[in-house]
Specification:
With about 700 residues, the protein is α+β, with helices and mostly antiparallel strands. It has 25 helices and 18 strands. The strands form 5 sheets. Strands 1, 2, 3, 7, 8, 9 and 10 form a 7-stranded mixed sheet that branches. Strands 13-15-16-14 form a 4-stranded antiparallel sheet, with helices on both faces.
């Protein structure tokens, strides 16, 4: 079957837009093909700074013929209805229609035949529409073509369209269409400087090979591999090690069509500036990589750049130009850093009184005071020194007002640590200035220093309680204040540090520190706890654990110790993987189902202890005895927080429950016996609630 080659050749596409644009092109074209009945075998899209390209292979040469039936009016309907039916179906007379018998009457049925079109004609229709409606995040309209004003919105001026369609064994045809005066053809262009001449192409293999000859690496993944490999080898050859940066690599690969890796240097005195500042300066301003000494792990006064040209002087001029710019930028960064060191962190804090955190939550200064107070309350709960914790919370946000953080926001917190150490603060206080933002994502490190943990918890819980109090909760996919991330951060801080604290009490304390008191303030901690439960389910799901077990544990009520919840969930999960667990779950569900049916039928519940005098079968007596023993044993195990032992106790219920359902008829003819047996079933449900609400567990 034929293949399609499509290329949209333009001025430079911003690197940040390329990957999504390639994916959008593939999706839009293939969706249209399928909608037109042209089911393809495979498709792949590519992007370089100057082109989007797409190959779709295995497209049928022709659409299938379509035959559809259209129901018309009843026999004997008014002439106007008949004429409308004939016009809609293309029939010349009712003689060409079929008659369909129906209980409501006999109806005319028209058979509409729509012959398929050649795929190349379909492509000629759909491709210009896709190009005109392409979803660039930003686009532009430029000058006139052939005396007519331009009408196409595109990310940058579009210069050429390549569109061919045909079999591998034959010369392909050009898909004939035009967009804004640009005629689709078989002509593209190579590298802007190294091979700018026009190139005639036929199909994808030919196209990709000719571009490579013209110094264009079409596949962005291949460009990334080449850059990374060459950069590592160049660094190694000079005795250094590349500091890898995936995001920078993605961006740089979108800036070049023919990557050439070079190394430059800067003056050693700049290394007195913190390494993160040097890296941010070089990365942000020149899109260059830094290298380090593999022996010491410290940055070296070298950098690696990626050029888009093979220079005749071996790149000397390009290196010199980058060195000049980097030298100036590092000089600025060094000046900012040295200037910041002249002012103590606490001396910056008064400025926060003029900076609003949120119009309903006050200034940054007010927020810092809230965090200080809450961190001091949390400190004893996590084993942190209260004085150090209060000091850390007092200084933690101060670096937001420094010159370096103003220039490079990504080093906030980190610079707070450097400045705190420089002014002689305790190491734990300095560490907390950096670590109180952590963890910022599932892959981020969780602080372990108790001072850092206390301040991090206070910071996140103050944020959550504050925005909950002003009813700025996350909705759907919208979470402008990153409250989901804050909740996950709290969960990880507690779970990974094995901390015991009541979330309800801490949330209530944070709420008390707010000047704003919502009308339903009493409900807020419990609402927030439900939000934590949802976040915990998300985390467990991502870890491959059973999130329904969280519901089963939370359903017991009064559960706000996240560490114990996690441990109970883990123990419950292991129990349910065993045969005893699976069978007990099945028995408990069966008991619950019977109870639900009978409670609905009788419009009452079957609470209360069963009457032992009404037991007539050994299986009833054995189950009643086992329930009493297991309930006591499991409750005692839960009280001492030995959840594995609680699950082992629950396992003892399995044999008597199985025997009961095998031998005992619950709905006995004697009403008193029936009620007593239903009460016994309720006892099963009650006993298992010592560890979890089994009704919440999915089969």
């Amino acid at each position: 079957m034929p293949d399609l080659l499509l290329e949209l050749f333009s001025e430079e596409i911003p690197a940040r837009m390329q990957a999504k644009a390639a994916d959008d092109l593939r999706r839009m074209v293939t969706d249209k093909l399928v909608a037109e009945g042209l089911v393809y075998e495979g498709a792949k899209a590519f992007a370089t700074p100057r082109r989007l390209a797409l190959t779709v292979h295995g497209i049928p040469a022709r659409q299938p013929d379509l035959k559809t039936e259209r129901r018309g009016p009843k026999i004997g309907a008014p002439d106007a209805a008949v004429q409308g039916f004939l016009k809609a179906t293309g029939l010349k007379s009712l003689d060409e229609a079929k008659i369909q018998r129906d209980p409501k009457g006999d109806f005319y049925i028209g058979l509409i035949e729509k012959p398929g079109r050649d795929a190349i004609d379909v492509l000629a229709d759909i491709l210009p529409v896709i190009i005109r409606t392409f979803p660039w995040p930003k686009s532009m309209r430029w000058g006139a073509r052939s005396g007519k004003p331009g009408s196409l919105n595109w990310v940058r001026p579009l210069h050429a369209i390549t569109a061919t369609f045909g079999l591998e064994t034959e010369e392909p045809d050009v898909v004939k269409f035009s967009v804004d005066g640009i005629e689709a053809g078989q002509t593209t262009y190579g590298h802007r400087f190294l091979a700018p001449a026009s190139i005639s192409v036929r199909r994808f293999e030919d196209y990709e090979a000719k571009l490579l000859d013209a110094k264009v690496v079409l596949d962005p993944e291949r460009r990334k591999d080449a850059i990374l490999t060459d950069a590592k080898q160049l660094a190694f050859a000079q005795g250094f090690e590349l500091v890898e940066d995936q995001n920078l690599l993605d961006e740089v690969a979108g800036l070049v069509e023919w990557p050439v890796v070079l190394m430059g240097s800067f003056e050693p005195e700049f290394l007195a500036t913190p390494a993160e500042v040097i890296r941010a300066t070089i990365r942000n301003n020149q899109k260059c990589f830094v290298v380090r000494d593999p022996k010491t792990g410290k940055l070296a006064n070298k950098f690696i750049l990626v050029a888009n040209i093979e220079a005749t002087d071996g790149g000397a001029t390009i290196i010199a130009g980058n060195e000049r710019v980097i030298r100036a930028r590092l000089s600025d960064a060094k000046f900012f850093y040295e200037t910041d060191l002249k002012t103590k962190l606490e001396d910056r804090l008064p400025k926060f009184e003029q900076i609003v955190f949120h119009e309903k939550l006050g200034t940054q200064a007010e927020r810092i005071k809230r965090i200080e107070r809450l961190a001091a309350e949390i400190a004893p709960l996590v084993g942190a020194d209260v004085g150090k914790t209060t000091r850390a919370a007092h200084l933690a946000k101060a670096d937001l007002l420094t010159e370096v953080v103003g220039e490079f926001p990504e080093v906030q917190g980190l610079m707070g640590k450097y400045y705190a150490l420089a002014q002689g603060e305790d190491a734990s206080v300095a560490a907390a200035c950096e670590e109180h933002y952590k963890p910022q994502g599932p892959a981020d490190r969780v602080p372990t220093d108790p001072v850092s943990v206390a301040v991090a918890l206070a910071d996140k819980i103050d944020t959550l309680v504050g925005f909950w109090a002003i009813d700025e909760k996350p909705t759907g996919s919208k979470d402008p204040y990153a409250l989901r991330r804050a909740a996950l951060g709290v969960i990880r801080l507690i779970a990974e540090n094995a901390l015991r604290l009541s979330l309800m009490k801490v949330a209530a304390s944070a709420l008390a520190g707010l000047s704003l008191k919502p009308a339903d303030a009493q409900k807020l901690p419990s609402e927030l706890l439900a939000f934590f439960a949802d976040r915990l389910k998300v985390q467990l799901r991502e870890q491959g654990a059973r999130h329904d077990l969280v519901d089963a544990v939370f359903a017991l009520g009064g559960q706000d110790d996240l560490l114990m919840i996690v441990r109970r969930v883990e123990a419950l999960g292991k129990f349910l993987e065993s045969d005893d667990g699976k069978n007990l779950l099945a028995g408990t569900k069966r008991a619950s189902n019977i109870l639900s049916i009978e409670e609905k039928k009788d419009k009452r519940s079957f609470d209360g202890a069963p009457d032992a005098a009404l037991y007539s079968l050994d299986e009833e007596k054995a189950l009643a005895k086992a329930i009493g023993e297991v309930k006591a044993e499991a409750s005692a195990a839960v009280a001492r927080e030995d959840f594995a032992a609680a699950m082992s106790a629950m396992a003892k219920l399995r044999p008597p429950v199985d025997a009961f359902f095998d031998k005992v008829r619950v709905n006995d003819d004697d009403a008193k016996v029936r009620e007593n047996r239903l009460r016994l079933l309720n006892e099963i449900r009650s006993a298992t609630r010592a560890v979890a609400d089994f009704s919440k567990i999915q089969d």
